[in-house]
Write a structure and sequence with these properties.
about 325 residues, mainly alpha, single chain
Amino acid sequence: MTTNTTTPKRSFFNSDATQKLLAFAGLIIMFIVFSLASENFFQFSNIVGILLATAINGILALGVTFVIITAGIDLSVGTVMTLAAVMTGMFITNLGLPVWLGVLGGLATGALAGFANGTMIAKMRIPPFIATLGMLYIAKGLSLVISGLKPIYFSDTPSFNQVAMGSVTGAIIPGFDIPNAVLIFFGAAVIAHIALTKTILGRYTFALGSNEEATRLSGVNVSAWKIAVYSLAGLFSGLAGVVIASRLNSAQPALGAGYELEAIAAVVIGGTSLSGGEGSILGTVIGAFVISVLTNGLRILSIPQEWQIVITGAIVILAVWADILRRRQQ
């Protein structure tokens, strides 16, 4: 007896490509509307500002994408970013280590925090919301304790500022000064895309989100791969910490609160389902740009900041609602 194992085809309108297309269409519409509303919007300096603002949130969102695809959540990415920035400052400024060692220290700090999140969730069976909420406070507290409640400045290490604010493109094409932070973001996005679509980590990330129990019964070490996913998210948070410290030329221990919400919003707007099993890096990049363009455009139009927050929240709700409707149709 033969068994029909053919997977039913989903129509385009029921696929996750729909939400990515809608997000991209919304991004284009916002560009057109804001360009018509203000002549200052489409200037090169403002576009560079949008790219720079997207870089930090976008790097955080890349890691969050992996976590949400597994049907998890990470509320600690913002404060872990801050802790990584503070540790980078400690290594470079206080200990006098070379810049490259300080950068590696910041990345390692983020990865270690992610590893702790994954261990609590996979081994201790603590729900992701609670585990990462606890890490949010731990990272926030450690940032304040280690820094002594004071910012750590890199004034004695001017080369560190060039990590994010230097311009490789400007050296190649005079006048075309795109900050290195933007290139780092796009490079990280390419690496994340390859990891999600071409590696065993990516395959198991989708498998965990689609059906964790079936994945476990098939012989996969679910705990190990879940720890790997959260460690990767922590690594991206560490990278964001290094970039933001370089951009500000200082490690601000009170910075970071709220970044996790913008990162999650970017992932959701980009079409990654909170139910797990679906998502893409391209969608996340589009979602990050949607938030940055919206914030920048509203600011240029002199919309009060409180209303900017309201509008962003409404867009996130609409994105989640669209995902719910799409899944019901499937």
